[in-house]
Structure formats: C-alpha cells, structure tokens
Design goal:
By secondary structure, the chain is α+β, with helices and mostly antiparallel strands. It is built from 5 helices and 12 strands. It binds zinc ion (ZN).
Amino acid sequence: MKTTKKTPEKVEFVEEISESLANAIRRSASEIPILAIDEIEFIKNDSVLYDEVLALRLGLIPLKTPKDMIIREKCSCKGKGCSKCSIQLKICEKGPCVVYSKSMKGKTEAVYAEIPIVNLVQNQELELIATAKIGTGKEHTKFSPGLVYYRNVAEIETDSNCDSCKECVEACPQKILKINKNKIEFIDKYKCDLCESCVEECKKHGKNCIKIIPGKEIAFFIESWGQIPAEEIFYQAVKIIKNNLNQLK
Ligand SMILES: [Zn+2]
C-alpha cells in the first residue's frame, strides 16, 4: 500500500483493491468496540438544557477507550454492567462556569478536554453520574471510532481533437493539470477530487476533449474521532473481517 498521509488522527493510502473489499473494510469499522456514555442518572440539573439534551451531548463526547474493555453483551456479567464492560463518570459543578468535557471525573477521560457541555449561571448546579459502556457503531453512531471512506483515484483521457488551449489547466481549482505533447496529464492524480471543473470548462468552449474516469486504484481515508488511533481502526477492521469470514466458514 502506498501511504499518502499518516498522523494519529488521519491515515490515507492508495492501493489496487476491489471496491467490494474496500467497502467491507469501511463497514467493519462499525463493529470495532468503542466506549461511549449510554446511561445517565441526573441528581441535579438547573441548567437551561433539558436532561435529554444534555444526555445526547454527553453521549457524543469521544472517550479514551481502555484496551482491555469488552462489549457488554459478550461480558461475563451477562449485560448487567460491571467494571469489565462499563465505566462510571461523575460531573459535579456549580455556576457561574462553563461545564467542559474535562469536568467528567472517573476511570477514563474525554479525548478532548475543552468540549463545552453547558453554561451555568450564578447558583445553577449540575450533578450527574454517567455510565459509559462498550458498544459498536452498528448499534449507535456514538460508538463509531471515526470516519472511514474511499473513492477511485481519477484517470484522465484526452481526445485527439484537443488543441492545447490550456483552459482546463487554468480552470482546475487544485492546479494539478499540465499539458504534455497535446495530452492533458495529472501532476498529482491523488489530489484530484473529481470536481470536473476541467470537463465543464472544455464544454464551455464548445469542445469535449477531456474525460475524467475512475481508475483501478482506490484511495482510502480513515479519520479518527480520537478514541483509538486511525491506524488502529484499519487493523481492527481487517481483524473483524477475518473473524466474520471464519465464522461463515
Ligand atoms: Zn460486564
């Protein structure tokens, strides 16, 4: 695989794989076990937000997922909830202040400390106990580890009628086209996002000599929400495909 970008948050690579395999990897990411808040007991809530709205906001905050945690449904506690499959987090704040994700105290913490949850004015109080559990994106999006998507790498085709007017080269917003011996070529094909500005520009001039077609290579993108590194999402997704195939066998 040709890696075009690699940071803890984002991985991009290019490879000649079939679309069905790429899609299988994408879908399997929603089976990776991820920690998220699932139940909340409100003790005090004087804030302007209803309990339900606060619960929704808290559920979507990415939490650091400890490695040894297991899905509640597969846990030895049989879905009751124990320390192996769930973590409790407490919030106890009094206004005036902004309650941030870092206000959650417990055995884990939010990936990003400064996510605002709610604003409290003088004498308003917020007190709650949240239970985070391990789940999968198949059950609810809040358990998904990030965004996984792919597209075909573009190929370019030039008609023999091309008179090298260079209008398409100018029209390209990414500036990745060049003319080489009456043929339009990519300077960097991995940067093409298939906007087709070049094709439109050509048609505007009454010609039709440039075509952008999907190539054999697939550009694959993984963006992590922060619970686990982007690279890990790929490895775990592949492992899940293998396990599922073995089960089918
Ligand atoms: Zn358990």
